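Notebook, bench 3.
Goal today: get a predicted structure for Transcription repressor NadR from Aedoeadaptatus acetigenes so we can plan the truncation constructs. The sequence was checked against the plasmid map this morning, with no discrepancies at the termini. Length recorded as 178 residues. Pasting the sequence as submitted so the record is complete.
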Amino acid sequence: MVLDKETRLYEIEKALRESAEPISGDSLAKTFSVSRQVIVQDISLLRAKNIPIHSTNRGYYMDAPKGFRRTFKSHHRDDEITKELNLIVDLGAIVEDVYVEHRIYGKIAATLNVQSRKDVKHFMDDIYHSVSTPLNNITNGYHFHTVFAKDEETLNEVEAALAEAGFLVPEEPFKEEA
């Protein structure tokens, strides 16, 4: 499976987060069709984003954070990204990622790990000083965030705040086609 760097970083982090045991660099290299050296560089990039990846002689692993995750579907304009992220972090939650579901390309994701207003500012500075546009632009403002919090109550507060701000897109129940 050949992935672009950002998608590969997201998938490596996800694999480590979901694994109960360490994953060797060779195994990651084989999974993502890259060299072991590329995996070492990717792990360094993830650590630079404050992702707690540990190394042992058996491979890489992450401590499983104790808490809860929920995925929220959002919709807003680009000039409302800061407000959305600040709503979440101000309630004590972490925005782990952003992804879109594209009808042709499928899921396109990026790791954020935004936990504070300072992180939001850095993220927005990166967007403003880049030739790239926010990921949600390819789906007309629709996107998803995986949000982590220490308790369900915080996630409920995040959901209420996003709904009150008009950002939350209610999930439609599955309808069987006739």
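The chain has two domains: 5-62, 68-164. The CA atoms of residues 119 and 125 lie 10 Å apart.
Flagging this for group meeting.
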